[in-house]
Amino acid sequence: TWAEFSYTLLQGYDFLHLYETKNCIMQVAGSDQWGNITTGVDLIRKMLNKTAYAFTMPLILDPSGKKFGKSEGNALWLDKSKTSPYQIYQYLYNSDDSKVIEYLKVFTFLPREQIEEICAQQKEHPETRIAQKTLAYEVVKDIHGKEEADNAVAGAKAAFGGGGDKSQMPTVELSKAEFDAGVNACDLFFNTKLCATKSDARRLIQQGGASVNGNAVTDVKAVFKTSDADKDGEFVVKAGKKKFCRVVLK
Fold first, then answer.
1. What is the pTM of this model?
2. Using CA atoms, how far apart are residues 98 and 107, in angstroms rounded to an integer?
3. Domains of the chain: which residue ranges?
4. Alpha-carbon distance 151 to 154, whole Å?
5. pLDDT tens, residue by residue, 129-187
6. Torsion sign across C-alpha atoms 150, 154, 157, 163
């Protein structure tokens, strides 16, 4: 397409402009930008008879071969208002076994010997997910500090039935008055943003992937009232195995 064709030209001209105005002699990027950068290198050589350089690094990919980033919809932000420490923890905790050791080497400052030891333990007892736990904890700790990392662990334990602190789970506040009257199951999963639409919520329930306070929800017409809350007067709503939310009534 014209957009694909012109993009490389514009990127090449951009390198030329930076070379002339900012004395930029090298561009550094992911390996997918090699063609764009070398177009600039060629343009600088032909127009200015000067030498410029390209330096690229292998992309970090997920198990499906997609790169991490905004365009793929799987970006992790350092700003906690965009990606909370808990969301980073949970995302990395769910890393595939085929990628987790690579991620430990790339995203953490752990010594290689320790990573190799973790790798051996993971192979012997994959059910412990020691590599995923270490990866998630270390990354959150390095970005947001030890306290936030500990909070993320506590939230995960609470969400998956191992004790922990529910206050560290992703939380939304919903109207107590609405629960006094009764809230439909589809509305509940939609209002907690676990489902993008009420139709998605309906499908989730029909496919057996919904639960509230540890109990499966199988009826799309089910209604939840204040009296159905747990001992803390709250709800823990789960969509599938990985998405969940704590509901506080106000």
1. 0.69
2. 15
3. 2-57, 85-168, 171-249
4. 5
5. 999 999 999 999 999 999 999 999 988 887 776 566 677 778 899 999 999 999 999 99
6. positive
